[in-house]
Amino acid sequence: MKTRRIVLAALLVIGVALIAAPFAFSMFDRTGNGEKMVNSFRPIMQPASVQKTSDYYYNVFTKLRPFALGMPAAAQDAQKLVPALAQALHMTPTQVQQMLGKQYPALAKLLQSMPQAVPVFNRVPPGLDHYLPLVQTMNANVGNYQSVDDLPAFGLFPWFFIVPGILIVLGAGALLLVDWKPELRLHHPAPPRLIAH
Questions:
Q1: Residues in the chain, pLDDT under 50
Q2: How far is CA 186 from CA 169, 175, 181, 182, 189, in A?
Q3: Side-chain half-sphere of 152: how many Cα atoms within 13 Å?
Q4: Residue 124: its pLDDT value, please?
Q5: How far apart, in whole angstroms, are the C-alpha atoms of residue 156 and residue 162?
Q6: CB-side exposure of 45: number of CA atoms within 13 Å?
Q7: Is 8 within 8 Å of 175 (Cβ atoms)?
Q8: What is the 3-state secondary structure (H, E, C) of 36-105?
């Protein structure tokens, strides 16, 4: 009888711990945040979207690396271009800039913007290096994301602790109560005896 009470008391403690765990670990908030995150990533982590991200990264952005690496030298050359043209055309640098602005407006704008563009282009190679693990991780985890997304709603997880905990507490508590108060036991009257004739 003593062993039975120890086992029931241990079950009662386990049940209470199961009920308390979701509150102690802030599961309601955390599972809600987890669900928001999974929902937010759903469009991004679809196979077609990951493939498109990879295509942009590998077939567009990485191909900008040589251009970005060459931009500082090109900007220096651009600064020498106007004076060189002015000398060759026997014009002042201002006249050359005006001529370029009228006849080659896109080129003139490009030449003017190159010094400001150099700091941006200097960040392209480290940016590509920075984002490479992200693209690789996305590609490697399409299936894993789908598995997580197929789980039941995250908001149910705390209840997977609370409901069994309540059942264990009620069951173990009722059995302990009956052990301590035997008068609570259900007594079934003995079936009537058949008298043999």
A1: none
A2: 20, 12, 11, 9, 10
A3: 6
A4: 94
A5: 10
A6: 19
A7: yes
A8: HHHHHHCCCCCHHHHHHHHHHHHHHHHHHHHHHHHHHHHHHHHHHHHHHHHHHHCCCHHHHHHHHHHHCH
Q: Which pLDDT score, from 0 to 100, does residue 187 have?
A: 55
Residue 71, both tokens:
């931009």
Which CB contacts under 8 angstroms, 24+ apart, belong to 30-33? 31/154, 31/155, 31/157, 31/158, 32/154, 32/155
pTM of the model: 0.66
User: Residue with structure tokens 């928001």?
Assistant: 36
Burial (CB count within 10 angstroms: exposed 0-12, middle 13-18, buried 19+), residue 21? middle
- Rg (the chain; Cα; Å): 38
Q: Which of 101, 108, 103 is nearest to 78 (CA)?
A: 108
pLDDT at 192: 60
